[in-house]
C-alpha cells in the first residue's frame, strides 16, 4: 500500500503573504539582527511621525467653548 502524496495547501500570495512574513520576521525572538532591525525601524517610524506632526502643540491652551 502506498500512501497518496499529500498536497500542500495553496499559499496565499501578495499582501497576505507579505504581512505574514513581516509578522514572523518581527516576532522571531531568537535572532538579534532581526530584533535590531525591527527596533531601528520602529525608531525611524517614530522620528518620522514626530517630525511630520511637529505642528501640533499639545501644551498650548485649548480654546474655551
UniProtKB/TrEMBL annotation:
GO terms for cellular component: mitochondrial outer membrane translocase complex. InterPro entries: TOMM6. Pfam families: TOM6p. Signal peptide: none annotated. Keywords: Membrane, Receptor, Transmembrane, Transmembrane helix. The chain crosses the membrane at residues 36-54. This is Mitochondrial import receptor subunit TOM6 homolog. It comes from Chanos chanos. The gene is tomm6.
Amino acid at each position: 500500500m502506498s500512501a497518496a502524496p499529500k498536497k500542500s495547501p495553496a499559499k496565499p500570495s501578495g499582501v497576505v503573504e507579505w504581512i505574514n512574513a513581516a509578522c514572523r520576521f518581527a516576532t522571531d525572538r531568537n535572532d538579534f539582527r532581526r530584533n535590531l532591525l525591527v527596533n531601528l525601524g520602529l525608531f525611524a517610524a517614530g522620528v518620522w511621525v514626530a517630525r511630520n506632526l511637529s505642528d501640533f502643540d499639545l501644551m498650548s491652551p485649548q480654546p474655551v467653548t
